[in-house]
Specification:
The chain has helices spanning 23-39, 61-70, 89-102, 119-124, 135-146, 174-183, 198-208, 232-238, 240-251, 270-279, 288-302, 316-331; strands at 9-13, 44-47, 76-83, 107-112, 167-171, 187-189, 220-228, 284-286, 306-310. The chain is of the alpha/beta class. Helix 3 (89-102) runs parallel beside helix 5 (135-146).
Length: 332
């Protein structure tokens, strides 16, 4: 059984917003959350990219990364991820090259090929949906822009050139796993919302991995929804917040962060319950002993090198307490 002390713990943040709250206070909560994670020794703090989703306020990903990096000391801050088909690679290289120049050695660039929005919003972003078909080429272009000048290309990322910002490929299917393996890049699987292909994707990535100047062996980070509290019972109660959010997502409703409830009975149909539970199939819920056991089992079964957790709890105090418990699990 692997020891949790040997596995880095990281966090994925969507800046979840309570209905009736403000964007300013929500982002202030995200900063305080990142600062507490920094104090406790978490490895990374990544921001997602989502658009036109009431209840999630992380649309301006690179802006938030700079803001949070400026108010923390040691934790790596990055994108989990930038949806590359939404952005010209040159712009991404300039933004993240600037961030790396401001906060040397602390910036990560995770890349995805999903829109991070619906089709109508994609068009509003001026997104050519065919660009997703060119994802592999655009990753290569971005690598070149962030690497040393070849002395030939007339287009250079200034700043960005030769910053060599670490690039990760993110995904929930076999495509990104295969591409990450081919390019010898680290791979992050989105188990926090799409657990279906987790075994096949990680196995494919490890099997087909080709060493590169970035990595000499595969490196897998697994996204997990985690709800940890002082007891199993309290964690189960707190987990109803994330269940209500996924239910809202399935229904096409706004994704406001809602208070936990004593029971979900009456809030969902049997079919909706099955869909939510499938969506959260890799969710880890419980007190310290339960969560430690589950994480060790997952790490052993999947050969995970690093965990990145979503921690969607209603009260900031509960989120911070969860960080303290997770930190204790690593140190004891």
């Amino acid at each position: 059984m692997p020891k949790l002390a040997a596995i880095p713990f990281s966090l994925l943040e969507l800046s979840p917003m309570q209905q009736g709250s403000t964007v300013s206070s929500t982002l202030a909560n995200s900063v305080a959350y990142a600062q507490r994670a920094d104090e406790l020794g978490f490895n990374r703090f990544w921001m997602a990219e989502h658009h036109n989703m009431p209840g999630i306020v992380c649309a301006a990903t690179s802006v938030l990364i700079g803001h949070i990096a400026g108010q923390t000391q040691n934790i790596r801050v990055g994108a989990g991820g930038v949806m590359l088909p939404n952005h010209p690679p040159l712009i991404v290289a300039e933004q993240f090259g600037t961030l790396e120049s401001l906060y040397p050695g602390r910036i990560d660039l995770g890349l995805g090929r999903a829109p991070g929005s619906d089709h109508i919003t994609s068009r509003a972003l001026r997104r050519d949906e065919r660009r997703a078909e060119n994802f592999a080429d655009e990753v290569t272009e971005l690598q070149s822009l962030l690497g040393p000048s070849d002395g030939v290309s007339p287009v250079r990322a200034i700043p960005g050139e030769n910053t060599n910002v670490p690039i990760w490929l993110l995904g929930s299917s076999l495509y990104s796993a295969q591409l990450a393996a081919k390019k010898g890049l680290p791979y992050a699987f989105a188990g926090h919302f799409a657990p279906r292909f987790v075994y096949d994707a990680i196995a494919l990535y490890r099997r087909e991995f080709q060493p590169s100047n970035v990595l000499d062996k595969p490196y897998v980070m697994l996204g997990l929804p985690v709800v940890v509290a002082d007891t199993d019972e309290h964690a189960a109660f707190l987990s109803t917040t994330s269940k209500q959010r996924i239910l809202a997502l399935l229904r096409g409703d706004p994704l406001w962060l809602t208070p936990p409830v004593k029971t979900m009975d009456g809030l969902w149909s049997a079919q909706e319950q099955a869909q939510v539970e499938s969506f959260l199939g890799l969710s880890v819920v419980g007190g310290p002993v339960t969560v430690a056991h589950k994480l060790k089992m997952i790490a052993k079964e999947l050969g995970v090198d690093e965990f990145i957790f979503t921690n969607d709890l209603y009260e900031s105090e509960d989120r911070h307490r969860a960080l303290e418990i997770l930190s204790d699990l690593k140190n004891n």
